[in-house]
Specification:
The protein is α+β, with helices and mostly antiparallel strands. It has helices at about 10-20, 40-45, 65-75, 90-100, 105-125, 130-150, 165-175, 190-200, 205-210, 210-225, and strands at about 1-5, 25-30, 55-60, 60-65. Keywords: Cytoplasm, Transferase.
């Protein structure tokens, strides 16, 4: 199985970590998003029709969408672990978060990061203050739901054990740090959970976040110079 990914992509990092810690064999195939490799006609025709990462090639079978790939890999390799359990209700709890996060954690974190950091970096154009204020409001609301709803009665997003839901959640929540927004600040429950995820998925988690952490440090240095 070939995994096409870029560590700049949140679901790419999550899927890479999931496959590695479950010892599911794959051939890493990096894609340079910042160089626009995914935008070419040849890329879409030969690799994936959607022009996005992550995706896999398993022989002649091509599959996109990170959550679909998690389920495919788990079934193919008969995975039965805390990361993606077979037991009906436990699996349903994991799936509950994976489905919820698309229009919540993922959307709010990604949009803020894109408008605050990515678009200005690519175009030199700054977002309007009102637009950014609304995006931050949505981001804060989504993070508060993680703090006060998902983690209110359990140490992890899908219950008492860590799972792939936590990997996906953590990778999304890391992304706004590049734009200077620390989701853990002022949220002690979320902060403790994030540290547990980092620790329990290490050292693969650190490997997948090396590039992100370098960008975070660069953002901090630029902000310090601007003061």
């Amino acid at each position: 199985m070939k995994l096409y990914f870029d560590f700049f992509s949140q679901p790419s990092r999550a899927l890479y970590i999931f496959l590695k810690i479950n010892k599911i064999p794959f051939e890493p195939c990096p894609v340079a998003l910042q160089k626009g490799e995914h935008l070419t006609k040849e890329f879409k025709e030969k690799l994936t029709r959607f022009g996005k990462v992550p995706f896999i090639h398993d022989g002649d079978f091509k599959l996109a969408e990170s959550v679909a790939i998690v389920r495919y890999a788990a079934r193919k390799h008969d995975l039965d672990s805390k990361w993606y359990p077979k037991e009906l209700r436990q699996q349903a709890r994991v799936d509950e978060y994976l489905e919820w996060q698309h229009n919540n954690t993922r959307t709010f974190c990604a949009l803020y990061f894109q408008k605050k950091w990515l678009v200005p970096m690519l175009t030199g154009e700054q977002p309007s203050p009102d637009r950014l204020k609304n995006l931050e409001k949505n981001l804060v609301q989504g993070l508060n739901e993680i703090e006060n709803v998902w983690l209110a009665n359990s140490p992890y997003l899908a219950g008492d054990q860590i799972s792939v839901a936590d990997i996906f959640g953590a990778c999304e929540i890391e992304q706004p740090r590049i734009a200077g927004f620390d989701a853990a600040e002022g949220r002690p429950v979320l902060s403790a959970w994030l540290e547990k995820v980092r620790k329990e998925t290490g050292p693969v988690y650190e490997e997948a976040h090396v590039s992100l952490n370098k960008l975070v440090q660069k953002t901090k240095e630029q902000a310090s110079k601007a003061k």
